[in-house]
Amino acid sequence: MTLRRTFFAFLSLTLATSAFAQENRCASLRLDEVLARIDGAKMKQTVEKLASFGTRHSLSDTKSGTRGIGAARRWIFDELSRYAAASKGRMTISYQSSMQSGPRTKDQPAEMINVVATIKGTTDPNRVYVATGHYDSMNSDIMDPIGDAPGANDDASGTSEIMEVARVLSQYPTDATIVLAAVMGEEQGLFGSTGLADHALAEKWNVEGDITNDIAGSVEGSSGAIDNRTLRIFSANTLPIGDSTSRHWARFVRDGARRWLPQVNVRLVYRLDRYRRGGDHAPFFDRGFPAIRFTEANENYRHQHQNVRVENGVQYGDLPQFVSADYLKLVASTNTVALATAACAPSAPKNVKVAGAVSDDTTLTWDVGTDADLAGYEIVIRETTGDEWERVIAVGKVGTFTAKDVRIDNYFFGVRAIDTDGNRSPVRTPDEPIRQTKWR
Ligand SMILES: [Zn+2]
């Protein structure tokens, strides 16, 4: 009897503890439920609403309640504020602004105002994952702040995606903070995202991942190619050998999609961006943050940066009719998986170093993290010509590991953190010089 009573007492204590833990548990554990809430039709309505402001050129009218970038910005703020009101205090909405100038502002300072939704992390709030879409638009003439520029795909699509991710993810706790920002001035020179990246530096955010969603809503390219499954993810390398944190972030996002979204075909592209083009992840990349770009499989150049017109029976212009609700859902889902799995995982290992020259063994060292639910680390190894990690070795909660009889010369080595629920961080690899200092 005594044993039985003790057992039930123990059981009820366990249940009470797990009910409490459930409240603060990370979203990845219920990711299917989170993903089921993403609403493509709602995003398509957001795209139509943003296009209805006529133009969202960064230097367009800000006073009107119905036309221009000011009206669009206030609508985004109000909409996000409604989502925040239903978030039990998890999400807050604010404006973040900076003064920027360049040839496309006639070298006059112009205020770049971003609308920022912040879902504050429960246990590691200073670690931040950022996703942006730009809400400004342009027509054939970048200096025209008056004429129509509906910007449905470029980039009401990305704006609708980050707004939908804010709506859905703000219902769940995450360890780290998620920032979803509608930025402006992209077409004028990546100005809003430059302001946001500077803000992140000034506030000493530990940005462990940035995504820009831009031209991410259409499935038919100007070549006629149709693809409603593929999402391109662009990432650049900062180093002469091995990997950058942006590449690790891109692979992490792809791996999450493979697990949770088998219908999505992530196509990694190992460039900062499309050839001779740019995007809002670049200011984050330039400041040393892991930063990548999401873009549809086949762009349609008849719909980008074009005055709305019909020529020889062909419709030009960036109109909502060319944006797919289902594809918006696919891209928002990929953002959600990336941000939720990252913000639920431990922070990536820091200060990763490797040693082993002229040795049969290779030794990795790193700083042991302080995450509350940190379980340990995994070493990953691959051939230098490979792209996928080929071997995974669980090594426990330690700060060093020696791979016996594995020579450093022939492999790339990395390490990632894992928590008590099995959530894994992005990989970190040691920096590697292209030339050794000593001649041998
Ligand atoms: Zn764009």
What does this entry look like structurally?
With 440 residues, the protein is α/β, with parallel strands linked by helices. The protein folds into two domains: 22-344, Aminopeptidase, CATH 3.40.630; 350-419, Sandwich (Immunoglobulin-like), CATH 2.60.40. Helices cover 30% and strands 25% of the residues. The protein has ten helices and 16 strands. The protein has helices spanning 2-23, 31-36, 40-51, 69-85, 152-169, 186-189, 191-202, 245-260, 282-286, 325-344, and strands at residues 91-100, 110-119, 124-134, 176-183, 206-213, 230-234, 265-269, 291-296, 309-311, 314-316, 350-355, 362-367, 374-383, 391-396, 400-403, 411-419. The longest helix is centred in the first third of the chain and has 22 residues, at 2-23. The radius of gyration is 23 Å and the shape is globular.
Summarize the SSE layout with pairings:
Layout: H1 2-23, H2 31-36, H3 40-51, H4 69-85, E1 91-100, E2 110-119, E3 124-134, H5 152-169, E4 176-183, H6 186-189, H7 191-202, E5 206-213, E6 230-234, H8 245-260, E7 265-269, H9 282-286, E8 291-296, E9 309-311, E10 314-316, H10 325-344, E11 350-355, E12 362-367, E13 374-383, E14 391-396, E15 400-403, E16 411-419
Parallel strand pairs: 3-4, 3-5, 5-8, 6-7
Antiparallel strand pairs: 1-2, 2-4, 6-8, 9-10, 11-12, 12-15, 13-14, 13-16
Zinc ion is lined by residues 134, 154-155, 186, 214-215.
H/E element order = HHHHEEEHEHHEEHEHEEEHEEEEEE
The number of E-state strands comes to 16
Number of domains: 2
Unreliable spans: 1-22
Helix content: 25-40%
The CATH H-level superfamily of the largest domain is: Zn peptidases
Helix/strand-derived class?
alpha/beta
Radius of gyration: 23 Å
Tell me the major beta sheet.
Answer: 8 strands, mixed
Instruction: Kindly report the CATH topology of the largest domain.
Output: Aminopeptidase
Count up the helices. 10
Q: Which outline best applies? A: globular
How far apart lie the N and C ends? 76 Å
CATH class of the largest domain: Alpha Beta
Could you tell me which ligands this complex binds, including any ions or cofactors? Answer: zinc ion
Overall average residue pLDDT:
93
